[in-house]
C-alpha cells in the first residue's frame, strides 16, 4: 500500500495542467548543486520591491513495503517556473541569498525525514497514526515558513551583509548537523 498525500497530488496537477515538462522545471536539492540566474524562469510581477524570489516545495511519500517495513522519501525541490528574478542576471551575492532559501528548505526536508523516521517506528503504538502524521507535516511546514521569514527579516532580504554571512554559516552548520538525513 502506498501513501502519498502531497507529492502525487502535486505531480498529477502539474502533469494535467502543464504537461510533463513541469517536472523538468524542477531542481532537486543536492549538496554540490548551486542555483544560477538561468534557474529563475518564472514571470516577474509588475510591481515588486524584491530582486528575486525562490519557490521551493517538499514532496514526500511513505511506502508500506510489507507488513513490517515502511520507507520514507522526502524531496526538496526548487520550482523554476514559480521562482523569478527582476533582472536578466543575478549577482553572486543575491544568488547566495536565494541559495540559502533553498538550503533552508532542505534543512526542513531533513527535519521532516527525521520526524517521519521516528513516526514510522512508533506508529503502531499510536492511537491515531493518521492524525500524528498530519501534525508532523503541519509543524514542519509552519516551522519552515517561520524560519524563512526570520531569515529575510534578520538579513533584511540580503541587505545586511554581516547578518547574511552569519545566516549562510548557520544554515551550513545546521545542514551538517542533520547530514545523516541528506539524500545521497
Labels describing this entry:
alpha+beta; disordered N terminus; elongated; 184 residues; two-stranded antiparallel sheet; 5 helices; 4-stranded antiparallel sheet
Topology:
Layout: E1 2-3, H1 7-18, H2 21-24, E2 26-28, E3 52-53, E4 56-64, E5 70-79, E6 84-85, H3 92-122, H4 129-155, H5 161-177
Antiparallel strand pairs: 1-4, 2-5, 3-6, 4-5
The gist of it:
By secondary structure, this protein is of the alpha+beta class. The protein has helices at residues 7-18, 21-24, 92-122, 129-155, 161-177, and strands at residues 2-3, 26-28, 52-53, 56-64, 70-79, 84-85. Residues 1-21 have low confidence and may be disordered.
Describe what you observe in this structure.
- The protein is α+β, with helices and mostly antiparallel strands and 184 residues long.
- The protein has one domain (2-181).
- 49% of the residues lie in helices and 15% in strands.
- It has five helices and six strands.
- It has helices spanning 7-18, 21-24, 92-122, 129-155, 161-177, and strands spanning 2-3, 26-28, 52-53, 56-64, 70-79, 84-85.
- The strands form two sheets. It has a four-stranded antiparallel beta sheet.
- A hairpin with a 5-residue loop joins strand 4 (56-64) and strand 5.
- Helix 3 packs parallel to helix 5.
- The protein is elongated.
- It starts with a strand and ends in a 7-residue tail after the last helix.
- The model is unreliable at 1-21 (pLDDT under 50).
